[in-house]
Design goal:
Elements lengths: L5 E6 L10 H9 L2 E4 L16 E4 L2 E2 L2 E2 L3 H12 L4 E6 L9 H10 L3 E5 L4 H8 L13 E5 L13 H6 L3 E5 L5 H10 L7 E6 L7 E6 L3 H8 L5 E5 L6 H4 L2
Helix pairs in contact: 2-3
Length: 247
């Protein structure tokens, strides 16, 4: 059966419904079917076409309602049934959103697709907390990593020795569940114990909460305050700007 539809891989932004792009809103209003993740806030749903078929695929960190292989297959299948297919993700599709894997599958099956970038929580959540991820006096580089990988496993793809040695900003996405392990890995590889750390929960939303500490205190603080996902962890001197810009 020939492919007749087009798939849009859409970034829904960091949570604030006003931080989604104009193009994303337009496509969501035209879509015949919308497959959306758990991290897509309820405010974004106001932009959905009321007549669209809605499919909740429920992806959040390690809680995947739909396995990725099945998700890929679903997108191809929906493209063969509908004219406009919207695949809506929190943040940006290509920033730890597995959008690249989905795009590969669509390309392999000759399905027309387009990526609509979104504002990643990796930059938006720190900004909303008064933390610029780069600053001329404090950090000339920023590194984004996934905190969902266990740094204690034998074949980690992350080089914590290099990460600990860098002088720029480190932003860890999906890092709450393994915060203790990530902090230990940085300390074990020589990162200073007094390095500032911030955890921004539900960044850009009305439920935003910021926890400030250092590598030596942040785990205890997070446990004491009951920090929960979704949250962004920021490590580096730029965290000090929260006192000035955090409001």
């Amino acid at each position: 059966m020939p492919t007749t539809g087009k798939v849009y891989l859409i970034g829904g932004g960091p949570g604030d419904p006003e931080l989604i792009t104009v193009k994303a809103v337009r496509i969501l209003g035209q879509a015949d079917v919308i497959l959306y993740d758990a991290l897509v806030g309820p405010g974004i749903r106001q932009y959905f076409n009321p007549a669209a078929e809605l499919i909740d695929v429920g992806k959040r960190a390690d809680k995947h309602t739909v396995p990725q292989e099945e998700m890929n297959r679903m997108l191809v299948e929906q493209a063969r049934k509908h004219r406009i297919v919207a695949r809506l993700k929190g943040g940006d599709p290509y920033v730890f959103g597995r959008g690249g894997e989905e795009a590969e599958e669509l390309a392999k099956n000759n399905v027309e697709f387009e990526v609509i970038p979104g504002i990643s929580s990796a930059i938006a959540a720190p900004a909303a907390a008064g933390i610029p991820v780069t600053h001329r006096d404090l950090a000339s580089s920023v590194t984004f990593i996934t905190g969902h990988e266990d740094p204690t496993k034998g074949e980690s793809a992350l080089n914590f020795k290099s990460l600990a040695a860098m002088n720029g900003t480190l932003v860890i996405l999906m890092g709450v569940s393994r915060l203790r392990d990530n902090v230990k890995a940085l300390l074990d590889n020589g990162k200073a114990r007094d390095t500032p750390v911030a955890i921004v929960e539900k960044g850009t939303t009305s439920g935003q909460r910021v926890t400030i500490g250092t590598l030596s205190t942040i785990v205890e603080l997070a446990e004491k305050r009951g920090v929960e996902a979704p949250a962004i962890v920021v490590v580096g001197d730029v965290v000090r700007m929260h006192e000035v810009l955090g409001g």
